[in-house]
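Troubleshooting: if your tokenizer reports a length mismatch, compare your output against this known-good record of 162 residues.
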Amino acid sequence: MSRPAVPAAQRTAAGQGQVTPVSADGAAPVDRSAFMRLIGAAQVPAPQGKVHVRLPHLRVELLNQLPAAHGGVVMALLDSVMSRAAGELPDAPSQTAVTVEMSSRFHRPARGALLAEGWVVHASRSLCSCAAQLIDEQGQVVATASGTFKYWLAPVTWSSIE
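Known-good structure output:
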């Protein structure tokens, strides 16, 4: 999949553009993750040092044959919450942290409303190690993950997020 071209007016000296996605009416910034919006997940308030992303409803399109949340949905929630935790550190060099590697463990089928919780384990100037867990509505941990994230210091290059 190719990335959309960045208009010349938005290019920096490095050939990259800075883009801030806005709502349909152009009035307000929106969540930077179009995929999280697509599956119906959103960041919700969390205790200091943690990030929470909630998926309040598992639509049929997000289920596997059990039926339970598809493994890709589970991994996406865990990945997103860890990346956000890395970017929300007070001294983070960037709010954008991209996945370098990730390890996931599935403990039981994920059903119902889900809450992903992520936190930073260790951070350096360029990399951040994080951990996460996915909790179902009964309070059971259904999956866990750990990952390494690289701070993305260059401007965002996508000219739109659709």
